[in-house]
Write a structure and sequence with these properties.
Elements (H helix, E strand, L loop, with lengths): L1 E5 L4 H12 L3 E6 L2 H10 L4 E4 L7 H4 L4 E4 L10 H12 L7 E5 L6 E2 L2 E2 H7 L8 H14 L6 E5 L3 E3 L8 E3 L12 E3 H13 L6 E6 L2
Parallel strand pairs: 1-2, 1-4, 2-3, 4-5, 5-8, 8-12, 9-11
Antiparallel strand pairs: 6-7, 10-12
InterPro entries: NAD(P)-bd_dom (IPR016040), NAD(P)-bd_dom_sf (IPR036291), Polyketide_Oxido-like (IPR051606)
Protein name: NAD(P)H-binding protein
GO molecular function: oxidoreductase activity, acting on the CH-NH group of donors, NAD or NADP as acceptor
Length: 215
């Protein structure tokens, strides 16, 4: 496949870039920091680079790909950009015969018993500096769920999303937060990359959200 990875230099994006390249896909790494893109290309010889603001990607550009992966990340002060970028991609990719688009979402929208993880976040005053991100990504998922003419799929990590190699015993689900046998709710970037590539290579879900965690 020809895959565009938005936010390719970030934690999740770089893991996805590496894995997709290793799987033999034609990878185009998108970002705004040319120095970081150059380093990514040095680490993954043969990938293509697209130094461009993702918000300026046009329909014609996006249609050149089989898959678009949105691994965009931003600071809590601009968390609303998660919603804005999702809306932009939805606008450009509506209709039949369009590329599939995958979104990395937060854990806040996952269920934990009779409530959402975001409810726990909002109840904890210590989360104030960063809670805007899970709040925005909850809205992002709600937006996607209202769309019936875009070939989208979403992926949520566990409560802690961190850099690291893939788990050899990953846990898979849909809408409930996952915990391993030690009671930990953790997803590494390597585990997330494997889950996304597996779904893109052998699709099981259309217009739905999946979740993955380290076992």
């Amino acid at each position: 496949m020809k895959i565009l990875i938005i936010g390719a230099t970030g934690m999740a994006g770089s893991a996805l870039t590496k894995l997709a390249h290793e799987h033999g896909h034609m990878v185009v790494a998108n970002g705004r920091d040319e120095a970081k893109l150059a380093q990514l290309a040095h680490e993954n010889p043969g990938i293509e680079l697209l130094a461009q603001d993702a918000f300026t990607l046009t329909k014609d550009q996006l249609m050149a790909y089989d898959v678009v992966i949105n691994a965009f990340a931003t600071a809590p002060t601009t968390a609303y950009l998660h919603i804005d970028l999702a809306a932009h991609l939805v606008h450009e990719l509506r209709g039949e015969n369009m590329p599939r688009v995958a979104f990395i979402l937060g854990a806040g929208s996952l269920k934990h018993g009779d409530h959402l993880v975001v409810d726990e976040i909002l109840a904890d005053e210590s989360t104030l500096p960063w809670r805007a991100v899970p709040q925005a990504q909850l809205v992002e998922l709600d937006l996607l769920r209202s769309v019936d003419n875009v070939n989208w799929v979403g992926f949520s990590p566990a409560q802690l999303f961190t850099a690291g190699p893939a788990s050899d015993k990953p846990l898979h689900g849909t809408d409930d937060v996952l915990f391993n046998t030690n009671g930990e709710s953790v997803t590494t970037s390597g585990t997330m990359a494997i889950a996304i590539l597996a779904e893109l290579e052998q699709p099981t879900t259309t217009r739905g959200r999946l979740t993955v965690a380290n076992g």
